[in-house]
Amino acid sequence: MSTMYIPALFAFGGSAFGAISTLVSGWFGQRRRLRERHHARSFSKRERLYRSFIEEASRLYADALITDRAEIPQLVSLYTLVGRMRILSSDEVVHAAERTGRLIIETYLSPNRTFVDLPAFIDEMDPLRDFGHACRRELLNLPPR
Q1: Cβ density class 6-32: b for 16+ within 10 Å, e for less
Q2: Is the distance from CB of 127 to CB of 57 less than 8 angstroms?
Q3: Containing H/E element for 17?
Q4: Structure letter (DSSP) for residue 110
Q5: How far apart, in whole angstroms, are the C-alpha atoms of residue 139 and residue 59?
Q6: Distance of CA 126 to CAs 16, 44, 70, 100, 144, Å?
Q7: Which residue blocks in 89-128 are alpha helix, DSSP H?
Q8: Rounded distance between C-alpha atoms, residue 4 and residue 22, angstroms
Q9: CA gap 19, 39 in Å, rounded
Q10: Measured between alpha carbons, how far is 14 from 21 in angstroms, rounded to an integer?
Q11: Is 41 left (phi over 0), alpha (psi -120 to 50) or beta?
């Protein structure tokens, strides 16, 4: 083999290595961007679900405090959100949502409250505290995929 082919082979090998490394780094970059996009979508999907639950549960809890006539379609809607949480969320969040739903039903079954009764049950006024803490922990610890 002639010595003039050796530099040409090294030049070809360097070009091939450069092309392959460009392709591999592009592939890894694309995978990282897709993973980040998936993580952002998962985060925002859970955030919207939790916001819907909080809005619906707050409205139902306020209604349950002043009336004993339960709004069955809205309770079903609340439990539909809990069902969606069973698919997307951790067990801690689902259990907190179920406890909130039970508290709302118990509030409907209890005597109606007035503004005068407020000091007696001020600690019960935040039925979503545990749910909010569980959601915050989950969203902060959501692993990137």
Answers
A1: eeeeeeeeeeeeeeeeeeeeeeeeeee
A2: yes
A3: helix 5-66
A4: S
A5: 24
A6: 65, 24, 19, 10, 31
A7: 91-109
A8: 28
A9: 30
A10: 10
A11: alpha
The torsion angles phi and psi of 131, rounded to 5 degrees, stand at: -65, -45
What per-residue confidence (pLDDT) applies to 143?
A: 67
> What tokens appear for 11 in the block?
């030049």
Single out the residue of 90, 92, 105, 96 nearest to residue 128, CA to CA.
96
Residue linked to tokens 């069973």: 86
Closest CA to 49 of 102, 89, 92, 100: 89
pLDDT confidence of residue 86? 93
One pLDDT digit (tens) per residue for the chain, 145 residues: 577 777 777 777 777 777 788 887 888 788 888 877 877 787 888 899 999 999 999 999 888 888 878 778 888 999 999 999 999 889 999 999 999 999 999 888 888 877 777 777 766 677 888 999 998 898 888 765 5
Token pair recorded at residue 46: 């859970």
Cβ atoms of 104 and 78 closer than 8 Å: yes
